[in-house]
Amino acid sequence: MNGAGRYAPSPTGELHLGNLRTALLAWLFARSTGRRFLLRFEDLDPERSDRAHADRQLADLTALGLDFDGEPQTQSDRWASYAEAVDRLAGRTYECYCSRREIAEAPSAPHRQPGSLRTYPGTCRDLSNEQRADRLAEGRRPALRLRAGGASETVQDLLHGEVTRMVDDFVLRRNDGVWSYNLAVVVDDAAMGVDQVVRGDDLLSSAPGQAYLAALLGVPAPMYAHVPLAVNASGQRLAKRDGAVTLARLARQGVSAGEVLTLIAVSLDLAGPTERVTPALLLERFDPAALPRRPWAVPGSPAGSLRA
Ligand code: GLU
């Protein structure tokens, strides 16, 4: 087996317990199937990403005992690959001059699935050259969208089974020239030989669109495992403001990285509450079929729950 799994954080801050749990799961899925395990920093957004955050994230993952094959990749080094991929999509893209507000206020597309995120209403799909020139003359700068033509795509997910979604005309390049996550993730996973994507289940709905783009680019789509997110005491997605939920803040309360690994392992039903574990031991116990499928309700005081 020579495929690879990966963890692909955005270096926009410290990793919290939910991020660390997803990273551990990605490592377990990859290593238990004999895959290489790669790290990629998704720093496309120059205003939010920071090299210092990337260094801190790598240090935290290493402190948990996770190891990676090869050097971390960084998306800001790969601009030329994204441009080259978009060139290959000629005829399947179009310029979009809409502002966020115009998209939000446009009437819904008729095929919008109930409960799904807003899909692009198609305003700029068939602009004439003259209409484009008018918009440029107004000082608007275009984003570039995929012309998906209302297609549906199906992916296989190890935890969710077959997932089929209509593919939106999603953005490939923002109107400030920044390449989109949905483009870069497909180009990079293919270039890195990634054939197993383990990540938070908030991204499940974007997987069919990414697989569709992979097919257009002539690269294989990976297999997926979208894992449950961590939530705070009110059931909302965990965030750094939820208190001592990063390794650095827990360390200040006297909690070691090893104890954090125990806490995460307990949440995965892979260890007892006071057991000292290592990633290698968790690998021996790991069974994807037995993974808890509910969101992880992080204790209000993670440090307290370890001392209880
Ligand atoms: N960079 C994304 C995040 O931090 C993850 C994307 C992915 O794993 O495909 O949420």
From TrEMBL:
Cited Gene3D superfamilies: HUPs
Positions of the Glutamyl/glutaminyl-tRNA synthetase class Ib catalytic domain: 6-246
Binding annotation for L-glutamate: R6, Y7, A8, P9, S10, E42, Y181, R199
Matching InterPro entries: aa-tRNA-synth_I_CS, Glu-Q_tRNA(Asp)_Synthase, Glu/Gln-tRNA-synth, Glu/Gln-tRNA-synth_Ib_cat-dom, GluQ/Sye, Rossmann-like_a/b/a_fold
UniProt cofactor note: Binds 1 zinc ion per subunit.
Pfam families associated with the record: tRNA-synt_1c
EC category: ligase
Motif 'KMSKS' region location, chain numbering: 237-241
Sequence motif: 'HIGH' region, positions: 9-19
Reported cofactor(s): Zn(2+)
Record EC number: 6.1.1.-
Positions in coiled-coil regions: none
GO terms of molecular function: glutamate-tRNA ligase activity
UniProt entry keywords in alphabetical sequence: Aminoacyl-tRNA synthetase, ATP-binding, Ligase, Metal-binding, Nucleotide-binding, Protein biosynthesis, Zinc
Binding positions for Zn(2+) per the UniProt entry: C96, C98, Y120, C124
Role noted for this protein: Catalyzes the tRNA-independent activation of glutamate in presence of ATP and the subsequent transfer of glutamate onto a tRNA(Asp). Glutamate is transferred on the 2-amino-5-(4,5-dihydroxy-2-cyclopenten-1-yl) moiety of the queuosine in the wobble position of the QUC anticodon.
PANTHER family the UniProt entry points to: GLUTAMATE--TRNA LIGASE, GLUTAMYL-Q TRNA(ASP) SYNTHETASE
Family: Belongs to the class-I aminoacyl-tRNA synthetase family. GluQ subfamily.
HAMAP family assigned: Glu_Q_tRNA_synth
Protein name as annotated: Glutamyl-Q tRNA(Asp) synthetase
